[in-house]
């Protein structure tokens, strides 16, 4: 018996003594899938510079190939989000076939309403009806693309906002926003969801039109059952209690999905958990509680976990493998929190007991559980190390230049 097997047996023993069902934990772990962003594999930068990484994917076909490798090594990333027009191709059916041949499906379609000079003063909120129509038409085009690719999510983020007080009228902009989104919503097929992403500042500096989860929730509630809020972890002011936002949105069944990343100062797009892993744990705890709650379970199992990270200084494929590993590791830790046990401490107002109970799970070495998960699926024990030894990087550097 090798060392990992021994460790696993001890771990199982320990968990059994605490009343955990190991098979159930493994199947829960299996339930969580993480979507990769196409834009995380190409050369992307900051507004200061874009550094070229040798071998970085040059187009959507190559991005899908790199994403497929991440999925092959981790077993939990079967879908890839696209950004239109960054990933636009002439033949969508061919792209779909390419994805399928690689064992992938296309995930969320992200319209791009922030690059065109026409959107200088806004897209769907623009005072000019011609520009509003142009923006709406682009989203409708994305719905058509989603239909061909059999994607069931349109993920909307707006750069709309103003830079100076008095620049435009808040209430008029809200009205235009609601009217535009209504047209989009009415064109969604039955099985398609609209995710509404918020961001409290940037690129507009005075106000943004969908500034926080309250506004995204208001819009999605007015629109209807197919509209949900998307939480990008980097889109909150410093110190915001994101796990509370998650709990509230879950209780309203209005959380659609995530854009995982981590921030230090602003929308830094750093890898998940690199700055504050405890926050990630507390967020996952809310998700695990919801998945285990009979009233919320069916809905909560459909929440989408997507990464929205741009690795301008880290090696891209490695950073993605690192992120997926972090997500799964912290998820495994949060699976080891039993809500009823926590409630017992809460009922007794035992603050220290409750916190220590959480910290015990957060500090736990869950490597044996992940090891078993990967072994059962025939995956490498350590995807990142496997990748580093695989020679893939050298190969793509040669081929792609
Ligand atoms: C905006 O900051 C954002 O989070 C949106 O999700 C965009 O689609 C994405 O980043 C692309 O960079
Ligand atoms: Mn995002």
Tags for this model:
binds alpha-D-psicofuranose; 8-stranded parallel sheet; 401 residues; 49% helix; TIM Barrel
Topology (elements, then pairings):
Layout (H helix, E strand, L loop, with lengths): L2 H15 L4 H10 L2 E4 L22 H15 L4 E6 L7 H10 L3 E7 L17 H21 L3 E5 L3 E2 L7 H17 L6 E5 L9 E2 L4 H11 L3 E6 L9 H10 L3 E6 L16 H16 L4 H4 L3 E4 L8 H20 L3 H9 L3 H12 L4 H10 L6 H8 L1 H9 L1
Parallel strand pairs: 1-2, 1-10, 2-3, 4-6, 6-8, 8-9, 9-10
Antiparallel strand pairs: 5-7
Helix pairs in contact: 1-14, 3-11, 5-6, 8-9, 9-11, 11-15, 12-13
Give structural notes.
The protein has 401 residues and is α/β, with parallel strands linked by helices. It has one domain (33-338): TIM Barrel. It is built from 16 helices and ten strands. Helix 8 (242-251) links the parallel strand 8 (227-232) and strand 9 (255-260). The longest helix is centred in the middle third of the chain and has 21 residues, at 129-149. The radius of gyration is 22 Å and the shape is globular. The mean pLDDT is 97. Residues 157, 197, 232, 259, 308 line the site of manganese (II) ion (MN).
Overview in brief:
The protein has 401 residues and is an alpha/beta fold. It is built from 16 helices and ten strands.
